[in-house]
Amino acid sequence: MHKKLLAISMSAAVLTSIALLTAPTGNKTVFADNTTAATSSTAQSQTPSALPTSSSIFNSTSTGDHSTDGSSTGQNKVTKAAAADQVAVDPDTTPGSVKPVQTSTGYEMSNDNFKVDIGNNGTIQGLYLSNDSFNTNYVMNAKDNPAQNTAGHEWVGDLMFQTQPGGTSGTNNVWQKEYTNKSDDATRKVSMSNNKVVVNYTPGTTAGGIQNMGVTETYSLDNDGHLKWDITVKNDTDHPLVIGDFGLPLPFKEWWSYSGADKTSQAYEQSAVYHSFVGQNSSYVYATRPSGIGNFLVMTPDASTGAGFEYQDHWGEGSHTGDEAPWTQFNSGYDNGLSVFYIKSDAIKSTNEGYLPNTSLTLAPQQSKTYSFKFSRSDIKNNANTSSSTTGDMTDTKYEDQLKSILYKENVMDAVSVPGMIVSKNDKGEATGKLYLHTKVPASDISFDYQNQTNDYESQQANANNDTKSNLGSNQQGKVTFEKTITKNGEQYHIYDFDFHSLGRNNVIVNYKLNGNPMKTTLQYYVIDNPEKALSQHADFIVKNTQWKDSSKFYNSIFDDWDFNTQAKRGNFKGASDWHSLGWGDDWGLTHGLFLAAQNANDPNKEQVEALAITWKMVFGTG
User: Are strands 368-377 and 227-235 parallel, antiparallel or unpaired?
Assistant: First the structure.
């Protein structure tokens, strides 16, 4: 199981969760940016009243039903533009605040916030915070991680595309991989211009490399304290070009394979842990040292470019082979494995790891599109205990407060719910709580859409594990009601009440406007039944469905696991001497009898107590 190590003390209120949207139900080609519309919109009122619900339903737009095998075929023959027109041009002409310095290994930029090393292959090989508590490189790199320095490397700055050069969908127009790491040096140029490091890729012929478009990445330290990363793609064919995948590998230095007597200190001083929220226009990633000591790094989308993430693909154990294998989990010292974040994900969606609608980008001939991201740094010293590199003062909320202020400044919709994102029903069958949206956007520019397990994006997918037949108690959609707006430390908070009736997944889609441009993010709630009712029902289910009653079997009277796929007891017993398989182990959640005993200590039930007594007598031979 892929685990994130989070050494950050967060408040009891939960930050925005990973989210869902409606499934695309129609096909429509949209040039420049194929976006996804929402369902059932509600207008926002600034008075403390329930939000009126509109009956309008908008279908998600998607460029066709695409086959996805990542291969290139000779059936998509396209004409390239003239060589002079093949370079994608970054539309941001604002010069960087610091002139990069050329080195033997690439370029270096530094100021009071950052020190950045761009390698000769155009990737970020060093990302440091200036005047940091420790000299931590926040990204994996060829020097520190040589086992990952293969032809399949995925450093920060490598890009992963899948395209359809013919510009149409169908079985004869399959997805074609175009990865910058597969492009040869003849098509890659790293230079300096306008106080920026500029990495140009022009179309080449190398299989798997950039072939049908111009790609330009620029790195600069801007005048607002950011490390700015602009990515521009340009269609260099004479046909529409569909970009189904637009992926950014982000290998922050979650690396734990150190050796020697000081390996613990190395891990705490030289490694980073990161947390990500994949939530469309309000996506963000932050990285910090495991102890939380010192400052931290935050990556946010530049809202003016429509950037954001809709999909995250984790390279689990055995998921990739060959020169990509060292980037998978538990391989070559990399316990975490790579995560790739996607701006567009219409091809990679076949891995079925997403919760949001998958969109694509269609470019007309010679058309370009730019997405931008900004790296910010905190400005605190969370190092009350300076005698050790492994402990910090995690009781102070300055850390979280500063993260939230950075998100606010960068126009990321910061959302917090109380009691959390998992909400239980009360005696009236309602799951209620409070939500605030911490944002510069006025309440009048915010509206909400709602979904549950009957109509969310996940319910529309052909997934054998997708549970859409459960009794949800109610098909009624959720509701968010505006209460008030308050200002704290010069920042604005909109306070809302929420109310859900349907069990399971419940999504609140937050629609908002920035400078007149439509944006969205999605909050994924999960509603559980009233705890007392749920515990009682679970105990009753265990007795009626999971206890073996066959005197010819050595496992007679044991409470077994229930297999939801077969709708039967699991029945996987290894032998009478294997106590773990009999349900007494602390792994796999096999301690059903212990749960039943604890439940009946608080709420005795005759049938359940008798079932426990039989188990005790048969297994331990006592009455």
Answer: antiparallel
The pLDDT score that the predictor gives to residue 90 is: 82
For 538, the domain range is 531-620
Instruction: Return the pLDDT at 24.
Output: 33
pLDDT tens digits, 473-524: 678 899 999 999 999 999 999 999 999 999 999 999 999 999 899 999 999 9
Looking up tokens 């040292």 gives 289
**Which is nearest to 70 in space by CA: 153, 172, 178?**
178
Whether residue 402 is contained in a domain is answered as no
Kindly report the backbone phi and psi dihedral angles of residue 359, in degrees, each rounded to the nearest multiple of 5, phi listed first.
Answer: -115, 170
Rg (CA), the chain: 27
User: Is the domain of 77 the same as that of 137?
Assistant: yes
What is d(CA 81, CA 366) in angstroms, rounded to the nearest whole number?
A: 8
* Number of compact structural domains in the chain: 3
Helix 531-545 vs helix 592-602: crossing angle, to nearest 10:
130
With residue 593 as reference, give the H or E element that holds it: helix 592-602
Rounded CA gap, 127 and 113, in Å?
11
Cα–Cα dist 575/594, whole Å:
21
Instruction: Return the closest-CA partner of residue 22 out of 35, 42, 34, 36.
Output: 36
Distance, CA of 9 to CA of 384 (rounded, Å): 15
Cα 293 from Cα 242, distance rounded (Å)? 44
Q: Report the DSSP pairing between strands 414-418 and 124-129.
A: unpaired
Residue spans of the chain under pLDDT 50 = 1-79, 382-391, 586-589, 623
For residues 254 and 238, state if they share a domain. yes
569, amino acid identity = K
Q: Helix %, strand %, coil % for the chain, to 5? A: 15, 35, 50
Query: Residue 185 phi/psi, 5° resolution?
Result: -65, -25
Q: CA dihedral in degrees (535, 541, 542, 546; nearest 10)? A: -160
Beta carbons of 510 and 520 less than 8 angstroms apart: yes
